Amino acid sequence: MTVRTRFAPSPTGLLHVGGIRTALFAWLVARQGNGQFILRLEDTDQKREVKGTDQHIMDCLMALGLEYDEGPDKKGPHGPYRQSQRLDIYKKWADKLVASGRAYADPYTAEEVQAFRELAQKSKKPFLYRNHRPENPAKWDGSTPLRLKSEPKAYKWHDEVMGDISTGPAVIDDIILMKSDGFPTYNFAHIVDDAEMQISHIIRGQEFLASVPNYLNIYEALDINPPIMATMPHILNEHGNKKLSKRDGAKDLMDYIKEGYLPEALVSFIATLGWNDGTTQEVFSTKELLQKFSLAKVQRSGARFDERRLLWVNGNFIRSMSLDQLYEKVESFWPEPAKNATTIYKKQVLATVQERLKYYAELPELTQFFFLDLPLDPQLIKQNKQLGKLSNEELKKLLTVSKTELEQSDFSTKDLTDRLNSLLNQTNQKPAVLFSLLRISITQTPSSPGLSDTLSVLGKVKSLERIESQINAL
Q1: Sign of the four-CA dihedral 30, 35, 41, 45
Q2: SS3 state of residue 235
Q3: Which of 344, 372, 400 represents a domain boundary (last residue)?
Q4: Any domain includes 326
Q5: Nearest-5° angle of CA 262, CA 264, CA 267?
Q6: Residue 47 has pLDDT above 90, yes or no
């Protein structure tokens, strides 16, 4: 089999994590099988289409390294790759169904169909259009919807994720294939497109699973062998009680990129939403995913979207980078006061925060005090559980003793560490008290990198000046 997978989104909105996961899994299957990955835009719902989202979808895939072999902006042997440009193809396949007696013109108005539906409700029966199929429909001329003349039957099929599935004939109905505006429905168009584009694997979301029996009925009517199917379970919110949505904080993928999330980290995180290789490994390079990914190991239940785990994964990738690599990546994220600092100094600063940096946009918050004397904030001491118990005189005494000791230091990290430990003995204080007081005094932030590293990078003059300022303020 020649492996050919596709990602077929509708350009009706921004691309979120659920769509990206579908694209990623399809891309992995294609690359593992030395096959092709195709991007197809399913833009038949012209009323819901949002201008610019087609380019946005392409930008997202490129940003993550999910390069497609054929698509709207790439020539291929099976184009066009926008459904709105393939109407003559759907018409040809629709005529084939009409000629074989497996499709007919829908003669009813929307009001008549609604009346049929209400009648079924009163009878407490499920509404099935095929129960109202016209005996002698008019010839279909495109001005009315075209419906499938279904052949209700039981189906059994295998899904690469969900396993063996079976349904009875009751779920089969005369669904619409072509609308009166000349556009196909998704139900019909994707089957025609997958056949024309020789797609070997269909990887899509769980919302389509209930429609598969009707799809199988269409495949039979068209005399097409169905591709391999793999259904992705929903991505759930952090509580696991409903499908992830914008209300739960689901962001556009490009927002993550703009905030300084690494494409490799996003790929690793998204791949493990509902998949693992059977080990305890949580972070995967793209190369490892190509080696280890398998549809058979995608779980059937929903996967929780945990923003904190994404931060952890992204931080893991940041920590694995060399300092030079990281410096190149964060060039546009430095705080404004850093623009006049030297490269050497900025690299020293970056080295102190690399362990704590979770995404690039955090850089200003973590490093601003290295470049700017922040205003003294008395609340930082008052609201500290340990320091808030001490009087101003006690605080001043601790800082004065510390300043005297640090004045003797050469401000190397090793010497600073030794002197800070010595100060604990001199003052008979815990690190949570003394070190917190010094940290607040020199950074005016509630937390910072290691104290010795911070003092060393700031330098002797600046560090002692800030301690003196805090003494005077007290």
Answers
A1: negative
A2: strand
A3: 372
A4: yes
A5: 110
A6: no
Range of 440's domain? 373-474
Give the integer Cα–Cα distance in Å for 23 and 267: 11
pLDDT attached to residue 15: 86
295 CB-side CA count, 13 A: 26
CB 134 within 8 A of CB 104: yes
Helix (H) or strand (E) holding 371: helix 363-371
Q: How far apart are the first and last CA of the chain?
A: 77
The answer to whether residue 244 is domain-embedded is no
One domain, residues 379 and 474: yes
Best CA proximity match to 106, nearest among 139, 146, 143: 146
Q: How far is CA 349 from the centre of its chain?
A: 30
β-pair partners for 36 = 4
Q: Which two tokens mark 276?
A: 């693992």
Shared-domain flag, residues 367 and 395: no
- Which residue type does 415 have? D
pTM, two decimals, is 0.91
365 lies in a domain?
yes
Amino acid at 62: M
Are 142 and 178 a contacting pair, CB within 8 Å? yes
Give me the residue label for tokens 């003349």.
149
Based on the domain organization, do 391 and 367 belong to the same domain? Answer: no
Query: Closest Cα partner for 180 from 226, 234, 207, 144?
Result: 144
- pLDDT tier at 118 (50, 70, 90 boundaries)? very high
> Residue 424: inside a domain, yes or no?
yes
- Return the sign of the alpha-carbon dihedral for residues 434, 437, 441, 445: positive
